[in-house]
Amino acid sequence: MTEMPRRGRPGRWLALVLGLWLAACAAGQEDAGPRLRLAAPDQALTALMAKRAAAVPPVAAERAMEALPGPDAGRIQVLALASSGPSSAYAAGFLKGWASQSQPGLRRPRRVDVVVVISGGALLATHAFLGDPASDQALEAAVPSLAGAALGRPYGQLAGLVAPSQRDPAPVRAELARLLTPALLDRVAAATELDPVTGQPGRFLLALALDLARGTPRVLDLGALARQPEPQRQAFYVAALMAASAIPVALPPVPVADGLLVDGGPGQLPRLVRYLDQLRGSAPAPQLMVILGETPAGGPVCAGAGPWAVAERSLALLTSWAAKAGLDQALTLAEANGVTLRWTSAAPAACRAAGSAAELRCLFAQGHAAASGAIDPWRTRPAATSDEPFTALTPAAGPACPAG
User: Fold this and answer.
1) Is the pLDDT of residue 33 over 80?
2) Distances (CA, A) of 318 to 21, 211, 232, 265, 315
């Protein structure tokens, strides 16, 4: 009797496929453990604005005009950082150059009451908030590693089938954990320490994120997280920064105790203006300074023809136009509510052809020169857009793209 040929054992193949699938699933999962719990700083911010307004001393009628409080007296200073990827180098260079500005009307404020970070600006949050020369120097040194890690690393083909995002966030988490030492978080905790009388902090470090579960923006109080005890302090602080900078689809959302957070992008600027205005009560409207990574909706780039390249470029364009609309709306809201809003941004097209490391140095130098120069780098009007008619039949020439 002839023996039938053996076809192999289906059980082994099933076990192999199941093992690979489980490995791929594991690649896309966040570490298990206690989830971040958030408490909005609304009441504390209202108290700070009222306290600052009450601190303006009354002026006798007979005193000279130069002795009167300036137009900014009693107003809190708010600095917002909204950048992403390589363009964060512009913000880092701007902060360092701003510190060396010698002209009275352009100098960096001696004390910024509130620092708000949006999108990739979250990766600069801690050093920007501390704002001393040592922090500016540390930020300059950290920009290359942060910009390189900001978008994570691509998953392998198998893991990518089941991962919750296109890229693995492990590199940015590891880089933030390396940079944000206990000593650095101690400094943030000290800078935001609670007033013994009011029980409220005197300064704030905040991040904005978008809650996918609620469909609403969330304010993350980083100072409160820095004041938490170990051992979860650093993990929660890093999780909040990653939530604010988790670009949808590219990076996975960050789960918290009562929501699911992602990067809401610079389009959240109008919400920030409205948020600050709602909290101020009868206090003077705040001053808001915004450092953007690049001019919204500006500059052509090389776009690949592959599906992921098309998806990434489409997302970048949609995000850019949302940022442009958000900036315009924020400026309109600010003007209507008496909020002074000034903004500045990079011109990344001048640096894109230089290559990654040279591009970062170019953007950093651009920001440093803008903030330390004799020309006021701040703008108060909407960003210019192309006047190219939609009916044009001949598209404008794009940049020279490398072959292949």
Assistant:
1) no
2) 33, 19, 36, 11, 5
The C-alpha atoms of residue 382 and residue 344 are separated, in whole angstroms, by 11
d(C-alpha 28, C-alpha 162), whole Å: 7
CB 332 within 8 A of CB 269: no
At residue 306, φ and ψ (nearest 5 deg) are: -70, 160
Mean per-residue pLDDT over the chain, rounded: 74
Are the beta carbons of 222 and 185 closer than 8 angstroms?
no
Report whether pLDDT(64) > 60.
no
Q: Give the span between the Cα atoms of 194 and 180, in whole angstroms.
A: 22
Whether 372 has a pLDDT exceeding 90, the answer reads yes
* Relative orientation angle of helices 356-372 and 133-149, to the nearest 10 degrees: 150
Alpha carbon distance 373, 377 (integer Å): 8
| 307-337 helix and 269-279 helix, angle to the nearest 10 degrees | 30
Beta strand spans in 108-234 (E): 114-119, 153-154, 167-168, 204-211, 216-221
Local structure of 84: helix, strand or coil: coil
Omega cis (within 30) before 144: no
Dihedral (CA of 336, 337, 343, 349) sign: negative
Instruction: At 210, list the tokens.
Output: 């978008």
Enumerate residues 6+ apart whose C-beta is below 8 A from 337: 273, 277, 285
Q: Are the C-beta atoms of residues 79 and 116 closer than 8 Å to each other?
A: yes
User: Quick count: other Cβ atoms within 10 Å of Cβ 321?
Assistant: 14
87 in Cβ contact with 121 (< 8 Å)? no
Report how far residue 246's alpha carbon sits from residue 168's, in angstroms, rounded to the nearest whole number.
11
Reported pTM: 0.77
| Residue 392: predicted pLDDT | 36
Are the CB atoms for 79 and 289 separated by under 8 Å?
Answer: yes
